[in-house]
Design a protein that fits this description.
Elements: E1 2-7, H1 10-35, H2 47-60, H3 62-65, H4 69-84, E2 103-108, E3 111-114, E4 133-136, E5 139-141, E6 146-151, E7 155-160, E8 175-181, E9 184-189, E10 204-209, E11 215-217, E12 222-223, H5 230-245, H6 251-285, E13 288-293, H7 296-299, H8 314-325, H9 329-339, E14 344-348, E15 372-374, E16 381-383, H10 384-393
Helix pairs in contact: 1-4, 2-4, 5-6, 6-9
The protein binds zinc ion (ZN).
Length: 433
Amino acid sequence: MSRFRMYPSRAQAEQMLTHCAHARYVWNLAVEQHAHWRRWRKSAPGFVEQCRQLTEARRENEWLGSGNADVQQQALKDFAQAKNARFTSGFGEPTWRRKHVHEGFRVIGTDRVPEYQADGSPKLNVKTGRQVMGRSVVVQKLNRRWAQVRVPGCGWVRFRLSARGKGAKLPDAKTFRVTFRNGQWHIAFAVIPDPAEGPGTGEVIGIDRGVTVTAALSDGRKLNCPQLTTRERAQIRKHQRRAARAPKGSKAKTAEYAKAARLKAREANRRKDWCEKTSTMLARCYDLVRFEKLNIKTMTRSAKGTVERPGKNVAQKSGLNRSILAQGWGLLRQRTGHKAPGRVEDVPAPYTSLRCSACGWIDKNSRKSQAEFVCSSCGFTCNADTNASINIAAGQGGIPRPRRTAGAGGTTPPNQRSSVREPQPEWVGIPLF
Ligand SMILES: [Zn+2]
């Protein structure tokens, strides 16, 4: 995916917002159709049937008919894809799209280009033997920094070629997606990037993800995901406070909320940027990347509980959840996996932070504090996060007790199993009884 910031004129932006509205309307119709389905009913209409229905609806409904047919049909195609991928995509069943929140549409290229097989020979139709023509988006480079793309009903719309190096060549895609979020337009071309080449030296790196240090590498480096500054956080609070005090439904209220949202979007952008750069670095510099296996969904479960049984320390837990999610752990793992397919491994997480990376001894007393690790068996001293990442690089940690051969360690007596647990935080979740 290559994504650029788009700069439409006022008229173009208006037209594109209409496209967004049409795409959203069609998508929501499809969601409703499928939500209506029950086991004993006939199956909900598929893509082809929906396209036929769309043609009918366009004839009857003037507002819909005035819009671009391709944009509306692509919304159906998006829906069909989302529906097919509901078990694998991680997003689940396709759900409603809301105005101001999910603004976007897909455009299929209007240019026709001959398609080729993987070996370079022209792709021919099996029946007629004629050349198969595929779609391609119409893009034009204006200069080193700017390019323009054809959007139906809008003519040429300019976008900024921001990626250095990549900026030299224009994206070659069949479709693109336009989105409008937080007052900014973006264009994303549907291209699958080539996987990054590893160095070929067989070098292995372990990565320990944490809240204090976002990613501690086994070579001793500590990488931190940029957060908002104290000043920016204070600004968010200021705008939220002003919004809360503004009269209901007033213009000021909307404006203040918009300002707060823009600052929050800045944080998300920073995080994304950092994840992209770091994952590219990891994919290029190492042949094997090992992460500890984390279940972020269960880690960030809410402590709220139910009305009858409210949880304890709900605010602390939600604060911790927020700082976990602010690290972008999941995104870093996912993007590294995309860029280095087959070269990323997940190591079971238990004991990686308590095991001594020098002798293999596991003891909770070795971990003196958040940052300090002093082995209680061999005296090995190290930063706790770095120690954990060395264990991860070795693929170790999953064994509950040190091996018999492990240096001066020996074995842990069976009655002391509880001593090898990680230091547990005070329980802040839903009461178990
Ligand atoms: Zn040790």
